[in-house]
Amino acid sequence: MSGNARGWSGREVRTRTYLDWNATTPLRPEAAAAIASVLSHCGNPSSVHHWGRAARQAMEGARQSVGALLDVRPERIIFVSGGTEANHLALLGTGRNRVLVSAVEHDSVLRAVPEAERIPVDHDGIVELDMLDRLLAAGPRPALVSVMLANNETGVMQPVAEIARIARGHDALFHCDVAQAAGRIALDAAAIGADLVSLSAHKLGGPPGIGALVVAGGMELTPLLRGGGQESGRRAGTENLLGIAGFAGAAGAAATQIAVYDRIRELRDSLEAGIAAIAPDAVVLGAAVPRLPNTTAVAMPGLSAETQVIALDLDGVMVSAGAACSSGKVGPSHVLQAMGVGPDLVVSTIRVSLGWTSSEADVGHFLEAWAALYQRCRGRAPRAHAA
Amino acid sequence: MPIYLDNQSSTRLDPHVLDAMLPYFIEQYGNPHSASHPYGRIAAEAIEQARGEVAALIGADPREVIFTSGATEANNLAIKGAARFAREHPRSATPRDHIVTLTTEHKCVLESCRQLEREGFQVTYLPIQASGLVSLDALATALSEQTLLVSVMAAHNEIGVIQPLVEIGEICRSKGVLFHTDAAQAFGKIALDVDAMRIDLMSISGHKVYGPKGIGALYIRRRPRVRLLPLIDGGGQERDLRSGTLPTPLCVGIGRAAGIAATEMTAEARRLRQLRDRLQTGLTRRVAGLRLNGDAESRLPGSLNFCFPGIPAIQLIEACPGIAISTGSACTSASVEPSYVLRALGLSDEDANTGIRIGLGRFTTPAEVDLAIDALAAAATRLAADSGMAGESRNPI
User: Fold this and answer.
1) Fold for domain A29-256?
2) pLDDT digit string (tens) for B96-113?
3) What ipTM, to 2 d.p.?
4) Do the chains contact at B11 and A42, CB–CB below 8 Å?
5) Residues in chain B closer than 8 A to A226 (CB atoms)
6) Which of A1, A210, A237 sits opposite B73 (nearest CB)?
7) pTM score of the predicted model
8) Which domain covers residue B70, as residue numbers?
9) What is the pLDDT of residues A298-328, one digit of tens each?
10) For B111, which of A207, A209, A227 is closest by C-beta distance?
């Protein structure tokens, strides 16, 4: 896009390459069209007159599309303001006092119930299933277990069907945050086996400010926000009609275009092959286990993640040092620490995440900038463990 | 041509607001919390500008404004957040565990208070006067050393009355009590000044002021500092008071809506008052026994609430399908119960069931007002005749 500024490496920055899709995604054209289609609705979906009914009708149609993404009935969908709120409603709304969360959950899960028991993960970031079983057996019933489907920092995917089975064996409810996975891999609520599922629109090409909690039939939830009784009394507040329409448009497109991620997986793999060719000492985290097709968490030992993202930014490549919400803060990633990643790697890990418009040129741009950075760094300060 | 006269429940998105939002839906899609690259920083700058516009409209510092998903969330956060913080961090031996509000507050305020009662807090629900206004004497009497917070709606969503905010703020400040006001209907419609009115917490809505749905704000006073416990925790956005990725286009929308209101509010209020008076005069002439609910003077420029004697509101609404009007709050408009607000004014169930809320807005034209007068008066006359009552006034112009 804009600007011909000089990059860090002295080259002219002609293009900007966005490789931070796990932070947020551009709006899909189908989502933009869906938003446009409801712009003329001035009504409040709760109003009984024509304008209100028209708004409600648009909203209920959208609820079907969002439900279809996970193959669930529309009445299972509660629209909320985003993934963070969905996680809070799930963790605080069931009334289960005993909560177990994986050590690699998003902050919105960890901080919703600070006193929750932590389920450890192995070196690849996968929940230790034996430990989950033992923890559930050892403590009081009934509990709530919260484990995300795919991690936002590493893309590592959890064996959620197994987790669901173990939870059920102990009468525990299972909540699964699928914010990063939705739209990137095919999803089916029955296969996940969760009682509660959190979704975020802006991670799959919808607008920010809208998400959903999918709730198993018959489950009572104590609302987080009380008031006008919207969303069957489970979430008060006038519904975000533009957001809901955009969410539905994006969900529909994501579901029908899921095969795009076969190509994205190849691109991501070529990116990692490129990294390995440039830097034999670079470490891709979670490379040995199932991961999302779009995410690479890579450590360049000896160079801080902060330095890398700044240098890459100056060269027009946008990546992140971890979760966007905490990227303004200092402090090492709790996800990598839970995986037992050494401190030198933790502080030097960046996240590169691709999306449906990502191209070979984008990967090339990244590799060029990253290689320049690597060579400069290694030339200036050779390290004992550098190859 | 259908006529939209339900601007209290929601308003049409102003085209200028939409124009401001569009770039942040499409090109500038960065996560505003991605500090490491320009897409993130551009989004963050737009949000800070919007925060400034919201703050400027109420005389606040931008650092005193946090964005929420709407006024419902802002009200829940203000009331529950202040109460729970005070419980966790007592400042004296006498616990501040008492809250005072009005029986006519919005459901989300009342439900938040009821939740706090379940958690052990004391809540006084003050009755209102026949005008819909709070009795300042009753308010002052209700406050004690245990009172933490007073929550009074700035302008009412059903009957449009504007409460004496300056006086309420004075009483609260003199007793060391926090003053929260739900300004969802008032923001951008009447002048609000958090310092002059001594407001400590103010809830704001985007879609009531020609902005988008799904965005609101909470003003939180810094000096003296008002402390809250968050309802939604996580990434630590909004100074740890409200986590979650901020929706840049929606924040830009409420900011632009506030900016437009800042320049147009005075002239718009004058225009709406004229239209409102024209509607009131027209209907009063043609509908016998028509009664205005709520104070006639201290009232939002575009807001009216009438009892059409003997005519159930539902029937009148059904008889005028081309006009969007309501029986009251949209949240409860599907309910068959009479409005609790009109009942609080002292109306019988039967009278309360005849209450009609009319809300004029930025896009309402004089021609629409005239058409609405004709349609409502004709329908009222027909319905009154059907039920054997005289409807049309004997004093036609």
Assistant:
1) Aspartate Aminotransferase; domain 2 (3.40.640)
2) 999 999 999 999 999 999
3) 0.93
4) yes
5) 76, 107-108, 111-112, 114-115
6) A237
7) 0.94
8) 15-260
9) 999 999 999 999 999 999 999 999 776 554 5
10) A227
